[in-house]
Write a structure and sequence with these properties.
Helices cover 12% and strands 37% of the residues. With 129 residues, it is mainly β. Strand 5 and strand 6 form a beta hairpin. Strands 1, 2, 3, 4, 5, 6, 7 and 8 form an eight-stranded mixed beta sheet that branches.
Length: 129
């Protein structure tokens, strides 16, 4: 099945609308849960509240982060995150891979407790294009 770019953009924009304004992003070290309904796994390295408008409008079947995504690390010692979860309250709505220069959510370097952490890249691409 294939969708038009207009439909893919609408699907992507629905992700941000459904999750809502100012969700939290947590970066973890360790194996990711099987799906968003499963409990958190791994060691939480940093949790940050995202901007109220945290994603740009979808264009050409892709949606990128908007604004500055940053927070202060609470755990880890020179750790590289392996996965992330985005939640509205306690409900996980989105999860994926994380890393330095790789993964769906990319950070600015290794994470040590007390360190400022910035997300350098985050995007979602529509499937079935």
């Amino acid at each position: 099945m294939q969708y038009s770019t207009t439909v893919n953009n609408a699907r992507l924009d629905a992700v941000e609308t459904t999750i809502g304004a100012s969700p939290t992003l947590t970066l973890y070290l360790g194996s990711a849960p099987a799906n968003c309904a499963a409990a958190d796994t791994g060691t939480a390295l940093v949790t940050m509240t995202l901007p109220s408008d945290w994603m740009a409008n979808a264009a050409a079947g892709a949606k990128a982060m908007a604004g500055s995504w940053s927070g202060t690390a609470s755990g880890g010692s020179a750790a590289t995150p392996t996965h992330f979860r985005i939640k509205a309250g306690a409900t996980c709505h989105l999860q994926g891979t994380a890393g330095i220069g790789s993964g769906e959510c990319q950070v600015n370097g290794t994470i040590t407790s007390g360190q400022a952490v910035s997300i350098s890249s985050f995007s979602i691409t529509a499937a079935n294009t």
